TrEMBL record:
Residue ranges that the Swiss-Prot or TrEMBL entry lists as coiled coil: none
Residue span, ZNF598/HEL2 PAH domain: 39-108, 164-240
Protein name: ZNF598/HEL2 PAH domain-containing protein
GO MF terms, alphabetically ordered: ribosome binding; ubiquitin protein ligase activity
A single BP term in Gene Ontology: rescue of stalled ribosome
Organism: Aphanomyces astaci
Length: 255
């Protein structure tokens, strides 16, 4: 009788654990779908269709038709890096196959830093005393009516800015061959420049000392497009133009 009693008790405990597990899975799945729906509203796209697409790709990963890397790439491409960081760990937890779960989590862990980097603006928002800070860069504020020596570049905003930032970071990762330390140094220096903690000339010196001159000549105009602060944008372009090789490349000239 004692054996039957303890056996029944164990079955009840197992059933309770399974019930809690099912409730947890339901909550995790609900969180994933809610995040996707919210993202679809932000993008102004058909939420049911996009969620159905997610379900199809999830099943393909579960059945082995997609690798973990392919599934992650799909999420990042369709919904953005921020959504990938939020939902993929929960997607991994929802997988019943331990091997699939481990593969997906390992892929998330390997790429999380680069995904998170794309969710944070390379340049911080301008601070209130932009004029005073701009003078530190050797650029006179606009209200002093000084004509800048370089033609301005139109900044990008919204999705266009996010796409450009992603493209920049992908090229940086390629140059550094995935060296996370070098990528972090690059993003740290761009934010220092954007926060007026590093003069434009010093930031440009870092770029030209780190990358090939041709790469810098392509990189600087793209970075300038991410700056909505006109003085910062002009200071960075001017630093490029004051470099003879940089100016020749930027102006489309040949030596």
């Amino acid at each position: 009788y004692l054996f039957i009693f303890f056996s029944t008790l164990a079955q009840r405990e197992q059933a309770l654990r399974e019930k809690l597990s099912a409730e947890t899975a339901k909550a995790l799945y609900g969180s994933v779908i809610s995040t996707l729906n919210h993202r679809c509203r932000q993008l102004n796209v058909d939420a049911p269709a996009m969620v159905d697409m997610f379900k199809v790709q999830s099943r393909k990963y579960g059945s082995g038709e997609l690798s973990a890397a392919q599934f992650c790439d799909f999420i990042v491409t369709q919904y953005g890096a921020k959504v990938a960081v939020e939902i993929l760990p929960n997607c991994a937890k929802l997988l019943s196959d331990p091997a699939k779960r481990q593969q997906l989590q390992a892929t998330v862990d390997a790429h999380k830093d680069s995904w998170e980097a794309t969710t944070v603006p390379l340049f911080a928002d301008p601070i209130a005393n932009a004029n005073a800070a701009a003078e530190k860069d050797g650029v006179v504020p606009i209200d002093k009516k000084v004509v800048l020596r370089v033609q301005d570049i139109t900044p990008v905003v919204g999705d266009e800015a996010r796409q450009l930032q992603r493209a920049i970071l992908e090229s940086i990762h390629a140059v550094f061959q995935g060296d996370a330390g070098q990528v972090k140094l690059f993003t740290a220096n761009t934010r220092k420049f954007g926060n007026h903690q590093m003069p434009a000339k010093e930031f440009y010196a870092y770029l030209i000392g780190t990358f090939d001159g041709d790469f810098v000549a392509r990189l600087v105009p793209d970075l300038a497009r991410l700056l909505d602060d006109a003085e910062k944008r002009h200071a960075l372009l001017q630093a490029l133009c004051e470099s003879a090789p940089g100016w020749q490349r930027f102006a489309g000239r040949t030596t």
